[in-house]
Amino acid sequence: MTEKLDFDVVLVGAGISGINFAYRLQERCPSLSYAVLEGRHEIGGTWSLFKYPGIRSDSDLYTFGFPWRPWTEQSSIAEGSLIINYMKESAAMYGIDQHIKFHHHVDAADFSSTSKTWTLDVTANGKEKKTIRSKFFLLCSGYYDYDQPLKTLIPGIEDFEGTVAHPQFWPQDMDYTDKKVVIIGSGATAITLMPNLAKKAENVTILQRSPSYILSQPSEDGMEKAIRWLTWWNKPLEHTLIRWKWVLVPFLLTRFAYNFPNAARKMFQNITQSQLPPTIQRDPHFNPSYNPFEQRVCFCPDGDFYKALRTGKGSVETGVIEKVTKNSIKLTSGKELNPDIIVTATGLQLRVGGGIAISVDKAPYNVGGKFLWKGVMLEDLPNAAYVIGYVDASWTLGADATAQLICRMLNTMQKEGVVEVVPRLSDKERNSMKEEPVLRLTSTYVKKAKDIMPKAGASGQWRARSYYFKDILMAWFGDIKTGTEWIRGV
Question: TM segments (predicted)?
Answer without folding.
Answer: none
